[in-house]
Design brief:
87 residues, mainly alpha, 78% helix
């Protein structure tokens, strides 16, 4: 599920190998595209950047990008809840 995938990102960023983070970011991109109709396009863009940074094994930039993902995720979640949209 989308929300679970997003919550996994932060946990995976602290792991030894960023390959799991890369895979989770990739999965979340697909989920973000599904909810893209409710304004999650920017979230998808942030996730794509996170996936690329994880593939490059750049932990420091991954952590900074995760902050952007989290902020945009909160915005999308608030919108979805305010609109009463079922995801």
């Amino acid at each position: 599920m989308f929300w679970e995938t997003i919550s996994d990102l932060d946990r995976l960023a602290g792991g030894r190998d960023l390959a799991d983070l890369q895979q989770a970011a990739h999965s979340a991109i697909g989920a973000a595209s599904y909810v893209g109709d409710v304004g999650a396009q920017t979230l998808g863009e942030h996730l794509e950047k996170l996936e690329a940074l994880a593939a490059a094994n750049d932990r420091e930039k991954c952590e900074a990008q995760l902050a952007k993902v989290a902020a945009e995720f909160s915005r999308v979640e608030e919108f979805i809840n305010a609109q009463g949209i079922a995801i």
